[in-house]
Known about the structure:
It is a single chain. By secondary structure, the protein is of the alpha+beta class. The protein has helices spanning about 1-25, 30-55, 55-85, 90-100, 105-120, 130-155, 165-180, 190-210, 220-225, 230-255, 270-285, 285-305, 425-440, and strands at about 315-320, 325-330, 340-350, 350-360, 365-370, 380-385, 385-390, 395, 415, 420-425. Among the domains are: about 1-185, no CATH class; about 315-440, 3-layer Sandwich (Rieske Iron-sulfur Protein). Strands 1-3-4-5 form a four-stranded mixed beta sheet. It has a three-stranded antiparallel beta sheet with strand order 2-10-9. Helix 5 (about 105-120) packs parallel to helix 7 and helix 7 (about 165-180) runs parallel beside helix 12 (about 285-305).
Amino acid sequence: MIAIVYKLIPHLLSWFCIVLVLLRCFSVRRSVIMIAGISGFICGVADSAVLFRFFSASTSYAVIKSALGASFFLFWTIAVVAVYRSGERSTTVSSRARWFDSSFSAGVISAFIAIVSGAICACRIPVVDSGALTYAVPVLAAISLAYASLCIEKRISVSFKAAPLGAFAAVVALLLFSSSSLPRLDLFSPLSMKVMKGVHDFVHQFMESILIPDHLFVKPIVWKYIGLLFGKEVGFWGGIIIWFTPVLLIALAIGSARLPSVAHIRQGAQRRKLLAAAIREQRLQLVIPFFSIVIFAGAAYQSSFPSVEYWDPTPVAVTANQAGEIFIPKTGEINLEDGKLHKYLFKQGTREARFFILLGPDGQLTVDLDACAICKPDGYGQADGAVLCYYCKTLIPLETVGKPGGCNPVPISFIEKGDGVAIDGITLINSWVSTVQATTRVTEGGK
């Protein structure tokens, strides 16, 4: 129980900050926020428990991750619209603000955010041997923290009011920060991977179809620079741009919003006083967006340097018999059916290949290269129902290991016998060589 409480700390702290931001944004709807928020959090925990009880882990994580992805996409949409409308008259903005501050909108928004937050928090609770008492721990902690947020919010100066745009940025940032400590819910690493793969595919197709690798005007030095586009740094920095742009747009929209008109006021001192107050309020509203930038940075860091310890055994050297067959027994010093990833190293002359054997959740063994068809062959580690590509930090659910495509390990054909696994050595070496050559061809000169 103590271990579970310790794991829940970052998620509960995020929940505490989310409630505080919502209360500051909807300061006249405190009771609605508290009721909708606490109810939503309880529903989120219950929904997560039901998902993991009656559906597979990959499906359950996919549902929660989709909700996070939808929030981030909505955040992008609102940020773009906010910049487009930042120059509108204050009267139009005020009418939208009045609608946003209604009891209905405050309750719906708070409930949805709380449901997602509760579901993320419940993902930390192991499904096996977890009863109602275990799930009651995050619920009771969330209720206590929500009331603590209410007490603190009442002591904050009335002049410091969170703008709806800034509050939305902070809430999304806190949700993503909470999910970043769970590798299977993290969004930043998959985002970086998508960027890297997109650049990889575009450059590859462009150079192959348009310029052709042996084009007369494409000198070797050109390929050296093109090779830079195939590094993981491209995916990382591309992901950073997509990650931070919406919150910067929100800050730009708040900072460039029109000040109230004071032309109708005759007294110069009164006009200057009103303008100074409006500028001061505008600057205060930028505090939360800048706070959101820090939270987004924390989520990106947590994603890039996860604290999860991965099972990564040292590859065991194996040999082939006279027929070129590698035979690995299921039991002995290594038990292939213990659910752990077991790595092996096969050498044939000057060539070698790394591969692993893993028992999937369906009870079937799979043999795969310790590499994929996209990234450099840095290998995989195993933790929390998934394997991780060390190069691009992409998580592959155990349910999909053994299936080709994407960043999945390249599967190898094998024959499962009664007491072991038989693999053709020539097929293994050729698959490894072709995979490694395909992922390093461009960086080595494109030939």
